[in-house]
């Protein structure tokens, strides 16, 4: 790995971050707060939230098996994706390498930040080869984007190839594990201590059932987390989100229950799709969705839409010709989709 100073955007390395009076306040000793120009009335929402979300991180550390200083929290994992560009890439000079197809925001954020985006096509079985990713890199490549289980293909990427990529690349590797709660594979976030150039992303939007509160996580070496914290907006995770997340974290068994039901529904849906005349193939999945190759995906997508059923049309995405991406919903929602497709 190149030194972190060399990987960081120079003005960000030199940045002196915004600091509030409460950043320096550590405990319960203060009883009067006249530092932040708040309204003293309208409890309990009148005060700014904890800028570093210490209570939430302490609880997350227990649940996720990662030390609290190795956790960054943001306004969805989309915030961490954007921050990775703003912290580690220089517009107009640097580039990033990413698997293709994958989650669209890696490219959108590259475009917003004026960073060259180099897609590397997955193999026909949607797998990566480390040497192909590394071959696409040059001295200006700062980040490699991986996603496992991958969106929209659904499969886990081969762990040996991920590890080889992390070990052989001298920049940062970001592995988006948004869907890892649905997979049997050991999460890579548990290995951040081994790899100083690894950033793992997680979210409350999927298995945790909290897409509305917008809370995403990045796990990495403390030096990387400190850079994210320097650049983020001071109060990027609002008080309601912090409170709701703590409530969700108090009931982790609920999440395990949902995951079990979703995985059972996933098998049922895949079996049913395989019997549909309109379905050519269902790809293997480790996520809460699956990719199905259809006989004319566009027409089926339009037909479903006219029946009030929205799925994700991926037919114009690389390697996904004629594919629809189907989220596993509730039993009722899934049955509605199947009933419509059986009538097609
Ligand atoms: N990563 C992946 C792979 C996703 O599919 C999504 C959302 N579809 C996200 C990140 C965004 O997650 P969040 O809601 O935490 O911003």
Automatic annotation (TrEMBL):
Which terms under GO biological process does the entry name? L-histidine biosynthetic process
Q: Which residues carry this modification: N6-(pyridoxal phosphate)lysine?
A: 206
> Which reaction is catalysed here?
L-histidinol phosphate + 2-oxoglutarate = 3-(imidazol-4-yl)-2-oxopropyl phosphate + L-glutamate
- PROSITE patterns named in the record: AA_TRANSFER_CLASS_2
In which pathway is this protein known to take part? Amino-acid biosynthesis; L-histidine biosynthesis; L-histidine from 5-phospho-alpha-D-ribose 1-diphosphate: step 7/9; Lipid metabolism
> Any keyword Transferase?
yes
Report the cofactors: pyridoxal 5'-phosphate
Record EC number: 2.6.1.9
Q: What CDD domains does this protein map onto?
A: AAT_like
Residues forming the Aminotransferase class I/classII large domain are 40-341
Q: Which Pfam families match?
A: Aminotran_1_2
Which keywords does this chain's UniProt record carry?
A: Amino-acid biosynthesis, Aminotransferase, Histidine biosynthesis, Pyridoxal phosphate, Transferase
Q: Which GO terms describe its molecular function?
A: histidinol-phosphate transaminase activity; pyridoxal phosphate binding
Principal EC category = transferase
Q: How does it assemble?
A: Homodimer.
Q: Which family does it belong to?
A: Belongs to the class-II pyridoxal-phosphate-dependent aminotransferase family. Histidinol-phosphate aminotransferase subfamily.
Q: What is this protein called?
A: Histidinol-phosphate aminotransferase
